[in-house]
Design goal:
UraD-like; mainly alpha; 8 helices; globular
Length: 191
């Protein structure tokens, strides 16, 4: 499934281009050489799909970050319906800034309840690159517009959002791995 094959009027809110510093080659090297079970555990922190984590880990070593992200995207596009259900079952509402008003949480909770009742899984949306002041509005606009999708259209959108979330989480995990010591006896980066 690629975004160019989306059926009908599917809503995927646009996000600004991300301009974060890429992970260091050292982080990629640590990921490439980590034992398979540690790499899979790290990957499951990015997307809770055993199939996706096994596939991305199995294709190591990656020559560069772009290759890793391309493999992540390809594995996400190839998720079966069962794999997608597994990944969606582990997702929760996106985190919102601490200073978000209680009424906004109530509105988001009500919209999320309606979404879960209609689609049977948690609402997922990638908020990477957004200013914290914009996350609530973007999440509310996204959930309200996506409530108009039919279930099949929404599974396509949710799969795309999961792919985007996995990509962003993977980059964050690798950035974190570059900032901490990795040893065979130390904690697994990102867990």
């Amino acid at each position: 499934m690629t975004p160019t094959h989306l059926p009908g009027p599917v809503a995927i809110p646009a996000l600004p281009e991300q301009t974060r510093t890429p992970p260091s080659p050292t982080a990629l090297s640590a990921f490439n050489t980590a034992p398979t079970d540690e790499a899979q555990r790290l990957l499951l922190g990015c997307l809770r799909s055993l199939c996706w984590s096994h596939r991305v880990a199995a294709h190591r070593p990656y020559p560069d970050i772009e290759s890793l992200l391309a493999a992540s995207d390809e594995a996400a596009y190839d998720l079966t319906s069962a794999d997608l259900s597994e990944a969606l079952a582990a997702e929760t509402l996106p985190p919102l800034p601490d200073e978000t008003y209680a009424v906004a949480y109530t509105a988001l909770s009500a919209a999320h309840a309606a979404y879960e009742a209609k689609f049977g899984h948690a609402f997922v949306i990638c908020l990477d690159g957004l200013d914290t002041n914009e996350t609530l509005d973007h999440a509310l606009a996204g959930i309200r517009s996506r409530l108009t999708n039919d279930p099949e259209e929404e599974r396509v959108v949710a799969a795309e959002e999961l792919r985007r979330l996995a990509r962003g989480r993977l980059l964050e995990v690798l950035r974190g791995a570059a900032n901490c010591a990795t040893s065979p006896h130390g904690p697994t980066p990102g867990t």
